[in-house]
Amino acid sequence: EILGDHTTCLRQSVPPMVAEGKRHWPKGAHTLGNAGVTLVGHSAEHGNVPAALLGGRFYTGKRKYWYTDFGGGVDRKRGETPQQGAFREFVEEFFGLDGAEAKTAASKLCEATTKVLVGARPFVHGAYVMFVVAAEAVVEALQLSKFATCTSAIDLLLDSAKRNSELSSIALVSIEEMLRGALNDGWVRPLSVRQLDGESRNSDEIELRPLMVGTSGSILTVRDALERFADEPIQLQPSCAPQPDLLPITNACCQQVDAMRLEEFKMAITRYIRMAPSLEPIVPTPSKLASQVRAQSRSQQSVPYVFDMETGDPDDVLTLLFLCSHPAVELRAVTITPGSEEQVALVRWLLEQVGVTHLRLGAQDWPANAKNAVNLSTQFYRSFGRSPDGEPRCERADQVLLDCCDEGTTLVTGAPLHNLGAAVAMNGFRLGRWVAQGGFAGEGVVPRDQQLDKFKGKFVCPTWNFGNNIPAAEAALASEAIARKICVSKNVCHAVFYDSAWHEALGAAARAQATRDPRGRRALAFGMMHKTMQEYLRHKPGGKKLHDPLALAVALDESVCELAEVQ
């Protein structure tokens, strides 16, 4: 990721000599100098609520007592990878290990958790790599399950944390509460807190470390993964009866680990690290289908977005519906190119269906293009209705962009840049981030062995969105009013398809949302998309290249791709 006032271009990359199972990891997960572990699990002590463990200590320089995940610097000079560094820091901070013992434990945890990471991969937040790990994986990897007496792994680890220079308390916080606090003021109400140093602290509320908090905080980077973990059903053991050499980790019982067994447990950690063989963790494989995220509205906690679209193919409508229903998005406005009456009526109808008629709606030079002929007669567009009248009323798109964009807003453009070009020319226009579907990353940007065959060796290639208004594209790319510019390039989009597997995943998400909240925005949006694309795939079984939805995915989580700075 490139920060600052630079234009960035998306390219696909697989770092050389990456082990199997890590090829889909973001590049930073192999190269960055800081990394950490977030521990999650279902707490049997608290009704199997999904929760996370956070370590607390006093930060001398800031004169604050904060709670955070377990991580720190990676020893890159000695060849340590971010994954190794993250788990070394974890065992040092959590169990008080050091030296060779810490490295050995970290190595075993790396081997055991690579294929079962929550979210199926690490996440990159700025210069920090985040590994979200189920507590069961840690307990099983270190062969500590024999010390559990009908308790859950997350509770067992809560009881086993050891005081050291970097840890003076340990807190168990529900995932829902942690997300709520991280997207507000950083204060959360924990389920349980252990003071490891004997100090008396008020723990009714605890404060998260500021780096974790807010729309630019680290917790937002892993929000989807945490919510999916929380939404997945847990596998309860049918009985708490001991099994040979193994006791159940996650079950419905809520018994404490007694003090004698706890001390034995702590001592066993070091013994195991010295002499236990490596083993495969007994952890459920993450579902291949996308799990639903929470459907309830969180507009007060969300990030402001504006979407500039056309109706040249299904991409724009799919992107609009995803934006309308995503819990991390506060959609402020939609602008349309060129903005015919039928285009406006189509978009207004979609907004009505998902209940977001409060936002602003704009069209290019409205109403100059109202009578333009725009083809909306294909089967895809016939699947939707039209609302020629009602809210939101249509306005000039450049004025809508001027009013709705600011330093904290992300603008996603999936159309020729007529509207953005007009807005950039207006006095007072400011934009925090622009994510454009457009541009071309070719020879000199994408390594030859990663280029698609149809673009191999090309330095330049025409693109629809930038090429249809070149002066507007040049003005937007050069504008100092836009703080950050990201181009999701044409050749990358041509490698991403809405196919039968994608359709199956969307169908599973639609059914789950319909069960949870039948009239919720996500249920309505997913249902419309799935029904319409069912018919589309019947006529075009080869699928549909995903241009604008991929740009939206990058806007929501930049770590899904590799970004290269270009000029």
What does the model show?
The protein has 567 residues and is α/β, with parallel strands linked by helices. It has 20 helices and 21 strands. The strands form 4 sheets. A 9-stranded mixed β-sheet has the order 15-14-13-12-16-17-18-1-21. Strands 2, 3, 4, 5, 6, 7, 8 and 10 form an 8-stranded mixed β-sheet that branches. Strands 9-11 form a two-stranded antiparallel ribbon. The longest helix has 19 residues, at 521-539. It is globular and about 75 Å long. 48% of the residues are buried. Residues 1-19, 236-266 and 268-300 have low confidence and may be disordered.
End-to-end CA span: 15 Å
Quick one: overall form? globular
Q: Radius of gyration, rounded?
A: 25 Å
Low-confidence stretches: 1-19, 236-266, 268-300
Mean pLDDT: 82
**Structural class given helices, strands, pairing?**
alpha/beta
Oligomer: single chain
How much of the sequence is in beta strands?
Answer: 15-25%
User: What is the tally of helical segments?
Assistant: 20
> How is the largest sheet built, in terms of strand order?
15-14-13-12-16-17-18-1-21
Share of helix, binned: 25-40%
Major sheet size, sense and barrel closure: 9 strands, mixed
Number of strands: 21
